[in-house]
Design a protein that fits this description.
Length: about 350
């Protein structure tokens, strides 16, 4: 069990962080690759294993990562210590040099995460919005108890189920919360990652949609053309009038029953329209207790924003996922040092 003791100043400084970054997702993906029981990652795992098996010697570093006994926890710890990338620095895992570890993580990222990053980023951005809405509408207690079944808040202690034992007191530094698609544990705590504002620790929590919804089977929509007609008509022309109304109604999050009542349509029609919007990457769906709750993704919010501001983007192409600073920054690339 891990414990984070949060004082009043910490609670006032809790923030929803940017996504952890594709390299850290790649590290967590090592566990997802090894867990053959997970149905959610089954097709993704099959595709990654096929790419690795056909790569010859090129992805030997990825094969080594998959054999690390401590899995992602051990790899992440060694990776975060990656500031020393000289040829004499060792990562402490499998006896490889630190520069080789960083290269292996980059290779894992390219083969397992990068092909799907557009959709993954859209999902994680939606998860951020969902938690921000909870924090603003229901408060910190509900937020902390919404991070997953393995995370519990009993003031002043935040408990995270874990095989290891750890005790952390931020002492006024606050806490960053960041969702992860590939994390297999109940949560992962990075006490003070380099580059975080004020040295705030990061709690990474797993967040996956209720079903895969093509999240890991394609690149998804990285850009969306905006028509040159009137903005509201452009959105309706793109997704249809009813689905445009659904998208507008979901701006603040909504369950199936509430949505059907708002729009005056049957629950079956709501399910059909939300499935279409979800497959297009415009909304995400997750369970909250006994209800299924839909929220608009970052891509869907961009479409809604475009439809309300014709002067800014009319006739242009909406940008793909932005590149904000990661919650956990990538260690610097290996530096080749010449001997004297």
């Amino acid at each position: 069990m891990q414990h984070i003791i949060l004082c009043a100043d910490d609670l006032a400084r809790i923030r929803i962080a940017y996504p952890i970054g594709r390299q850290v997702e790649a590290i967590f993906a090592v566990d997802a690759l090894r867990d053959t029981k997970s149905e959610f990652f089954r097709d993704w795992r099959r595709g990654v294993n096929a790419r690795i098996s056909h790569s010859g010697q090129r992805l030997n570093g990825v094969r080594r990562l998959a054999r690390v006994r401590g899995g992602s926890r051990e790899i992440l710890s060694a990776w975060l210590g990656g500031a020393d990338t000289s040829d004499t620095a060792h990562s402490g895992i499998l006896g490889v040099q630190q520069s080789q570890l960083l290269a292996a993580v980059d290779d894992m990222c390219q083969v397992a995460v990068q092909p799907h990053w557009s959709r993954i980023y859209t999902h994680l951005a939606s998860a951020q919005d969902f938690r921000r809405d909870i924090m603003c509408g229901d408060g910190i207690e509900v937020l902390l108890n919404s991070l997953g079944p393995g995370i519990r808040w009993t003031a002043p202690v935040l408990e995270i189920d874990s095989e290891s034992t750890a005790h952390l007191e931020p002492n006024g530094r606050g806490l960053l919360l960041s969702p992860s698609l590939f994390l297999q544990d109940a949560g992962a705590v990075v006490p003070s990652p380099p580059g975080t504002a004020g040295g705030s620790p990061v709690l990474i929590f797993p967040d996956r949609p209720s079903d895969q919804c093509g999240l890991l089977s394609g690149e998804g929509l990285s850009s969306v053309p905006v028509a040159t007609r009137r903005p509201q008509e452009s959105l309706a022309g793109l997704v249809g009038r009813t689905r445009a109304a659904v998208l507008h109604a979901l701006r603040d999050g909504c369950s199936n029953g509430n949505l059907a009542e708002k729009l005056g349509v049957s629950p079956a029609a709501v399910s059909q329209h939300t499935a279409t919007l979800r497959n297009a990457g415009l909304i995400s769906t997750r369970r909250s207790g006994s209800q299924v709750v839909h929220t608009v993704t970052a891509l869907g919010r961009r479409l809604l924003r475009d439809a309300s501001d014709s002067s800014e983007l009319c006739g242009h192409v909406a940008p793909g996922p932005p590149s904000p600073p990661d919650a956990i920054r990538t260690p610097p690339p290996p530096v080749m040092r010449r001997s004297a």
